[in-house]
Amino acid sequence: MTSPAGGSESRALVHLASRIQQRASRSWTVMDICGGQTHTIVGSGLVPLLEPAIRFVHGPGCPVCVTDVDLIDHAHEIASERDVTLACLGDVMRMRGSSGNFYDARAKGHSVKVVGSPLDALALASVEPPRRVVYFAIGFETTAPATALAIRLARRRNIHNFSVLSAHVLVAPAIDHLLARELCQVDGLLGPGHACSVTGLSALDKVGRDHRKPIVIAGFSPSDLCIAIMTLTEAMETWETGASNAYDRVVKSEGNPAARALIEEVFEPATRTWFGIGPIARSGLNIRDSYAAHDASKGPWTRTRRSDKVPSETHCGEVLSGARLPRQCPWFGTTCTPQTPLGAPMTSAEGACAAYFTARTPTPEGKTHAP
Ligand code: SF4
After folding, report:
1. Which fold has domain 64-170+280-301?
2. What proportion of the chain, given as a percentage, has pLDDT over 90?
3. Mean pLDDT to the nearest integer, 109-119
4. Sheet bearing 28-32, strands edge to edge
5. Which atom belonging to ligand 1 lies closest to the Cα atom of 318?
6. For the chain, which residues make up each domain, given as ranges?
7. Distance linking the first and last C-alpha atoms of the chain
8. Does ligand 1 come within 6 angstroms of the Cβ of 95?
């Protein structure tokens, strides 16, 4: 969680907030699309600081939250094979399929190992033959290059017992889908700095122009976000559209061409179902046929049916698409807490509901940043 801003940073934030309040001629609805940014916005007190000029809503910016239950169930099925180790990042362990999370899978005796990266999973495969290692790959464009690299290295090094179940998703098609919704009331968006460091600005720029909305690429600290919101407020006030960059110390307008080439070589865009939102065309990354030998969704593990037990926490979908704030869910903080999560946005540490719950929990000094 982000530390509350203090000292000179706090004074700078108050100054920036007052400039935003003065510039705003009305209340603007701003969506962020990154779990890290959501946590900073909520945890560092930006919500009350910027009201009423800015009203925040939070988009599908947590990749753990948006992974479809059917894909999680597929990973469980693969993990249940006797000669398979499922490898995943630590925050994947709490993801719930229709029969529980991956701690539950472990408790049933399935081999599930936490790794630090897909390259660690590849290293595991190289010392484990004939055991097969399947890496369950979650994340946006930020993490896809490392997964692509692991797949390419597996082929070059003839590590035949390594494969990947890809749940990678893409930011721009999801935003395009949300902005096209009839009831969408978003006036402007904060772009995710980490994903844009790979993609550059062009894809989000097209989405912004197509829907006549401004998108400002932002970093992750309270001051990074306030500066981006200042730029976004100016853009909303002057009806600018398209993407601009308030995080240029990290994000270049062309992105990272080498990382994009790696993604392009190994993956191809495909329709992906987003939890709580539904199928979105060209919003996922599937492994190309040329790398099919390392694709866990093909061959013996090809999935031919969808899960029949899909959870019905419809409010999670509304939170993930920015139509409802976590505190507007009737189960928030009562039935649904990080210890007893009903849905992915509370289960994942990056989720919006977890961010709001953490912000209302008093610090040792008795302070909260409850929005
Ligand atoms: S509080 Fe729980 S049930 Fe409600 S939207 Fe958040 S995760 Fe879903």
Report:
1. Rossmann fold (3.40.50)
2. 78
3. 97
4. 54-58, 28-32, 188-192, 214-218, 242-245
5. 5
6. 64-170+280-301
7. 15
8. no
